[in-house]
Amino acid sequence: MHHNPISITDLSYVYEDGTQALQEINLEIKATERVALIGANGSGKSTLLLHLNGLLLPQTGGIVVGEHKMTPKTLKEIRNFVGLVFQNPDDQLFMPTVWEDVAFGPLNQGVEEPGLTDRVKRAMAAVGLDFHRYAERTASNLSGGEQKRVAIAGVLAMQPQVLVLDEPSAQLDPAARRQLIELLGSLPLTQLIATHDLDMALDLCSSTIVLGQGRVVFSGPTEQVLSNPEFLDRYSLEPPLCYARPYCQIEHAPCLSTPALASAERMG
Ligand code: ADP
Ligand code: MG
Quick one: the chain helix, strand, coil %, rounded to 5? Predict the structure, then answer.
């Protein structure tokens, strides 16, 4: 296990049309940590994630993944190390059957039978998809929650060290979202999760990175940043519901503002 599986130094990125999407990003992701990546729309979350498995290459600055500095020559090693689950399953699932979707990554890695079927079965089991029930189904006919599981299985089948997910709970109904949270919590992998779902971030992630206009504006304990409404407001974010509603207050939620508490007591 690598001590810091992902290390980013002075990373900046400008799209072809001149949009500056990332500016001087410096970050370390520690092994086995689950980290939330939050920020308003357009703050650079997806652009940063696309860098982590080499779909975008650093223009300025550098990324080290495992023992490999990211360059065009190390892409194979990088993609074996970091698995990216796209926001939209349609971008990831395009084969006729679930079996083929999950086998696609390991096949590209050169995994052959009988190891291949074993990888597919294990990955499907890890995400709670019954092999016999789902292997021959077509991903496009599955529910959003099932599709998300297939997409995650396809990445897990490549046996990455780091799992990177772009807004995994978006578009899921509450039950599927809850199951996803349980699934991610059960996977013993380093994870970086870009999300607008701050309650999920609070549930799953000990650390949080906040992006504002392409810059890292906070990196530290999740509870510290999510319990600071003024800071969140500055970056067009809102506190998690469990902090924002006094009557839902959980025992350990820090620093609700005193007026809110007082009014809750008056009401209660
Ligand atoms: P987020 O995922 O946080 O919503 P993105 O990384 O998608 O943010 O976008 C960061 C910035 O880069 C935004 O200003 C967005 O408009 C811009 N951007 C994203 N993709 C492209 C692209 N393909 N071409 C030009 N600009 C882009
Ligand atoms: Mg995005």
Answer: 40, 20, 35
C-alpha span between 85 and 195 (Å, rounded):
12
Cα torsion angle, 158, 146, 211, 209, sign: negative
Q: Quick check: CB of 18 below 6 Å from ligand 1?
A: no
> Is residue 112 lining ligand 1, measured as CB closer than 6 Å?
no
Residues paired with residue 207 on neighbouring β-strands, in sequence order: 35, 221
Q: Which two tokens stand for residue 70?
A: 């990211």
pLDDT of residue 183: 93
Residue 88 has pLDDT above 90, yes or no: yes
pLDDT(258) > 60:
no
Distance 195 CA to ligand 1 centre (A): 15
Closest CA to 38 of 227, 253, 192: 192
Mean pLDDT score of the chain, rounded to an integer? 91
What tokens appear for 103 in the block?
């086998």
Q: Which ligand is nearest to the CA of 22?
A: 1
For residue 48, give the ligand nearest its CA.
1
pLDDT of res. 2 = 46
Q: How, if at all, do strands 6-14 and 60-65 pair?
A: antiparallel
Distance 44 CA to ligand 1 centre (A): 6
42 C-alpha vs ligand 1 centroid, how far in Å?
A: 5
Residue-wise pLDDT for 17-63, tens only, equals 999 999 999 999 999 999 999 999 999 999 999 999 999 999 999 99
Q: Which atom of ligand 1 is nearest to the CA of 43?
A: 3
164 forms bridges with which residues in the sheet?
Answer: 84, 192
Q: Which ligand is nearest to the CA of 13?
A: 1
The 10s digit of each residue's pLDDT in 161-195 is: 999 999 999 989 999 899 999 999 999 999 999 99
